[in-house]
Amino acid sequence: MPAMFSKKSRTISVILILLILVITSLMVYSIAAETQKTLKGAVQDKLISVAGATASQIDGDAFARITSGEENTQNFIRIRDQLWRVKLATPDIRFIYTMRKNGDAVVFVVDGDYGHAADAAKIGQPYPEAEPELIYGFTAPSANEEFTTDPWGTVLSGFSPIRDSTGNVVGIVGVDMDSTVVSAELDRLNLIIYGIGILAMIAAVIGIIMIERRREMDEQKVEESERKYRLLFERAGDAIYLLEAEGENQGKIVTANKAAADMHGYSVDELQHLNITDLDAPAEKISAPDKFDRILNGKWLYGELFHRKKNGSEFTVEISAGLLDLGTKKYILAIDRDISERKQTEKALKQATKKINLLNSVTFNDIQNALFSLKGFHELARSAGSYEKMKGYLDTEEESVQRITRSLNFANCYQDLGIKPPKWQNVNQTFVFAISHRDFSSISRNVHVDGLEIYADRMLERVFLALADNVLKHAKTATEVAMRYHETPDGLTLVFEDNGIGILDDRKDAVFERGSGSHKGMELFLVREILSITDISIKETGESGKGARFEIMVPKGAYRFVGTA
User: Fold this and answer.
1) DSSP one-letter code for 300
2) Hey, which CATH number is domain 236-338, 3.30.450.20, 2.40.30.60, 3.30.420.40, 3.40.50.2000?
3) Is 487 in a helix, a strand, or coil?
4) What gap in Å lies between CA 259 and CA 266, rounded to an integer?
5) H or E segment to which residue 56 belongs
6) pTM value > 0.70
7) Whole-number Cα distances in Å, 541 to 120, 191, 502, 550
8) Does the pLDDT value for residue 536 go beyond 50?
């Protein structure tokens, strides 16, 4: 190591501790922000859950028949009492009510407080300035991103559609939680987190004072400190670099620790022959001169950017860099942390919640519709006048039972979709495991994926199984499947194709859809959902009559090559 660890340098300890102070501050702020986000997300989930559960218990047909002035009818009172019981059972809930669309306006229908509070809304009373989340509630469960204020106060709200026996949306259930409930919890958590942060900062300041006093008391302590800092540098989990700050070699790596070498696939010696910009992804190189200028002007840089490994794959790093002035020489101290998996996991878990809500909603509608049909044909079978008629009705009932069974199997199979964090998976190995569940002996395979790994949901094997099933079920004339990849400016495209009859042009998008009550395209619908957990998309681009071709688009940072460098 250069003069950075010289006994004559008394500033390095202060700089490192100040760096710890800055990092601690950033971590406290990040934890506080993430805690607030998580708490609000939990509240939103609770609101959606309560609204959804309540909506599922409301008779949509009876609800649709309620008109203005019918506050004393049996239908109104029954729904009002349902809402009131939910409110009593959930103390955090301030208001619970139902609404419907009336042209472009949104109006109240049944207010759970009607008869219990003087300001309860009446049937047909307009709701002023409906927010986008409320309007979206007529399509799918939703919740406000931020608090909203209306004549009844400042609240965070959740909504869920009410459906009639045919599956049509006839209204929504709205659930409001008073802002003071959430704000009080946020204030309490912020007080704790920032209190810990202040204590950490005080501890860091005390550490600086103690270090300097120790130097004054005994100069020999410097050698021990040097040994400790060298050990920290070499064994740190984060990548640490010392760079040339000025001149024609600006940015050249003077020294780096083993973590930096391992992170990028180089040896430490190889790194010392590179410039830090050699580790940047192409898109990052453009802004490199500006970054050096800002550091030389005394500013510390913080942020995220893409780095490139020796094998060419890109990943996301969190950087912290600043000027290190040792008097006779200036250096740049840079610290990198690989956060690619953390970024993918955060994004995937957020998307997973949305996907699971969608799947639960679709499954619920299928079962509800099938039960309605089953009940109707059961009544017809009981009154059938002949064996032939009764047998026909019983056959139809059997179809309804099979529909319910498929929906339950669907829910059971995918109830854990997105719950566990995604992971890196070898494409070739996962494909081989997938087709091992089917008799694929009549289909030749031409697979060239060269150690490719992608960061995807743990059900990736199910994706390849569904694509293989699609060949066996629909490409009756197919004799070969092929899988290959090519890189693009936006990432990587993985191609899976067969030489069967292909898919008609007007069906290319429809094969990924799943209509209410229809199981056509269920597997490919779920293929798209599984892949989207980590921002991977899929489309069909084959030519009808020449075979199906599925293109799977993997974004940068979500693929890598292992054992091919």
Assistant:
1) P
2) 3.30.450.20
3) strand
4) 10
5) helix 11-57
6) no
7) 56, 55, 10, 6
8) yes
